[in-house]
Amino acid sequence: MSGLEAHLETGVTTTCRCWALTRRDGVVMGFTDHDRELVFDGIAFRPDTGLSALALQQTTGLSVDNTEALGALSDAAIREADIEAGRYDGADLRAWLVNWQDVAARQLLFRGTIGELRRAGGAFEAELRGLTDALNVPMGRVYQKSCSAVLGDRDCTFDLETPGYVSEREVEEIEGNRVFRFAGMGGFDEGWFRHGVIRVQSGAAAGLVGLIKRDRSEGAGRVIELWHPLRAEVASGDALRIEAGCDKRMVTCQIKFGNLLNFQGFPDIPGDDWTITDPTKSPRLDGRSRRR
């Protein structure tokens, strides 16, 4: 019998709940509904966050365990600006039942991730998703003309540290956390970074990533525009890492990156009209519209 089980058998218990939250940027935070700080596993679980949880629903089979966590927003713990920036999206969370008189007597009750997170009136409400939620993710390979890999991932294998594919510089001018203007970007052709990413390395938006929609020249300068604004304030002088983009075409993989052997698309796959057509004398059946 474990220490916690023996304690519960006594009928007079001194238990509380503790939560450990690990964000994707590596920040670890501890919370408890006890009235004093508890420490175990190298984590300090703080009582001043107002965090609490609703009843945990756990079932057998492959259904998703779920619960919700409620808490107060504060500068000392969970800040509204960090929620807005998406820093808690997909964060890992563990929950224990703990004997606060002997923290070695504890039981892990839940492990999962944060799903939908809502905030209002100085408080937040977070949906917690169990480990079986990952089983809802579609698996398998998509057969399509364009490449299905992400530039630099294990399927693509291209090394972005290769000279000429990354520009590290500071923010010069920015509009709406979306449009970056630079005095010049020598050594990189216009459009080189289109479909690439901007990674913010310092400042309030450190750790955030934006997808590049356009990369164009403007006079002697350069303009890089994101699809969506970054979800935290970016200021002049913040450090950026700008990575080259790939439009997923075979010719781009071959000429721009010299990585054709790892191309993950199927450029010669028949188009939809080829698979459903009746016999015809048409010389081209590749899915494109025909001009008459």
UniProtKB/TrEMBL annotation:
Residues 281-292 have a biased composition (Basic and acidic residues). Residues 191-273 form the Bacteriophage phiJL001 Gp84 C-terminal domain. It comes from Roseovarius azorensis. The lineage of its organism: Bacteria, Pseudomonadati, Pseudomonadota, Alphaproteobacteria, Rhodobacterales. InterPro entries: Phage_phiJL001_Gp84, Phage_phiJL001_Gp84_C. Residues 272-292 are annotated as: Disordered. This is Bacteriophage phiJL001 Gp84 C-terminal domain-containing protein. NCBIfam families: phg_TIGR02218. It comes from the Bacteria.
